[in-house]
Write a structure and sequence with these properties.
2 domains, rod-shaped, 3 helices, single chain, about 30% helix, two-stranded antiparallel ribbon, Translation Initiation Factor IF3, 4-stranded mixed sheet, alpha+beta
Length: about 140
């Protein structure tokens, strides 16, 4: 048995006679319970010509990230002539939003940033609007110049 100072800031200081190893172990267990998941931003990249099966696999991976408490950023990269057909990207993102459903909510709706289209999901909270409730509008048709 050891004499352990439990509350050094109190006046007078509080001490106990106990097994110090057991006390230290229980303190570490309490500290581990208090730690929570550090939220990270995971990126999933797509192209407009992505196959249905490939998209489904990427969406299922995104749902797993959302269930783990991470944010997910979908990035659609346009190459060459694809960038003149942004509506294809919006259609694919609309399908992704329907597939994610209740698991996540849209933090940043789809928008075009240069040759990329970006959309960010955050983990779904109970009582929050599901992602399917927020369906983005298609942009006005762009004319190549």
């Amino acid at each position: 048995m050891d004499l352990v100072e439990v509350a050094p800031t109190e006046r007078p200081p509080v001490c106990r006679i106990m097994d110090f190893g057991k006390f230290k172990y229980s303190q570490n267990q309490k500290k581990k319970k208090q730690k929570h998941h550090q939220q990270k931003l995971k990126e999933i990249r797509l192209h407009p010509d992505v196959g249905e099966h490939d998209r489904d696999i990427k969406v299922s991976r995104a749902v797993k990230f959302l269930e783990d408490g991470d944010k997910v950023q979908f990035t659609m990269v346009f190459h060459g002539r694809e960038r003149f057909h942004k509506e294809i990207g919006f259609d694919i993102f609309k399908l992704i939003i329907e597939q994610v459903g209740e698991k996540g909510r849209i933090e940043r709706p789809p928008r075009i940033e240069g040759q990329r289209m970006v959309m960010v999901f955050s983990p779904g909270k109970p009582g929050a609007k599901p992602a399917a409730a927020v369906v983005p509008a298609k942009p006005a048709a762009e004319t190549p110049t």
